[in-house]
Amino acid sequence: MITLYAADTANSSKIFIALEELQLPYEVKPVDILAGQQFEPALTELNPNSKIPVIVDSEGPDGRPHTVFESGAILLYLADKTGLLLSKEPVARSEAIQWLMMQMSTVGPMTGQLIHFARFAPPGNDYALARYKSQVHRFLDVLERRVQRSEWIGGPNYSIVDIANFPWVRPLKLFLGDQIEADYPHLTAWVSRIAERPAVARADEAKARLATVFTPPEKADPVKVDRLLGRGAYSRT
Ligand SMILES: N[C@@H](CCC(=O)N[C@@H](CS)C(=O)NCC(=O)O)C(=O)O
């Protein structure tokens, strides 16, 4: 049995989708990040970086429970555990892992910063917003060219690489406007192909069920929000 520590976030989505695609039995432990539960010892013992998602596999590679944090590492772990969603052929595997690393190092962090400055920056932070918008368009150009040439981002088959990118690319319309569908037609078709998968619908439902137990943003303690965002008393300059 796999225990998934998660919230209603894009990085959590990756793991819901992978577990549903792989049809692995799992239970979910919601982590209310607006209430600061990621900083509690129970979670920090599993992930010293105090972030979700985290999984604990009760039957790890040596038969004992095994903990994995960082969504890219979790996806690789699940692919290796099952032998699915990642090629075992060394060249194809290396190619897929390159694109997985690009998601982890660029697609997630640049989009995360765009969302942060769009939602949380006080007025007047146009430089930061413009920078992260440009960075997001930069990787969208790269992904658009990739899916023009290859049906899937990691290579010829649907893989953990598509699962890693999808929850970040799907909502970008909200931040960049409907025009991106016309600007990135191949990527838009790729989003639709993935959104139609039954496992993705099941993952969305499982994640939506979680949302009901979390602190709504308007009720969040401002001090806990400052800690989450590293600002106010938690700012380090
Ligand atoms: N690189 C990490 C990022 C994890 C991450 O940023 N998780 C967010 C939610 S998507 C989180 O736990 N935020 C709480 C915090 O930063 O305090 C991964 O891919 O797992």
Automatic annotation (TrEMBL):
Alphabetical list of CDD domains matching this protein: GST_C_Ure2p_like (cd03178), GST_N_Ure2p_like (cd03048)
Name of the molecule in the record: GST-like protein
Pfam families in the cross-refs: GST_C, GST_N_2
Residue stretches making up the GST N-terminal domain: 1-86
Any one GO molecular-function label of the UniProt entry: oxidoreductase activity
Domain GST C-terminal: 89-214
E.C. numbers: 1.8.4.-
Keyword Oxidoreductase belongs to the record: yes
Assigned keywords, A-Z: Oxidoreductase
Domain of life of the organism encoding this protein: Bacteria
Entries under InterPro entries matching the protein: Glutathione-S-Trfase_C-like (IPR010987), Glutathione-S-Trfase_C_sf (IPR036282), Glutathione_S-Trfase (IPR040079), Glutathione_S-Trfase_N (IPR004045), GST_C (IPR004046), Thioredoxin-like_sf (IPR036249)
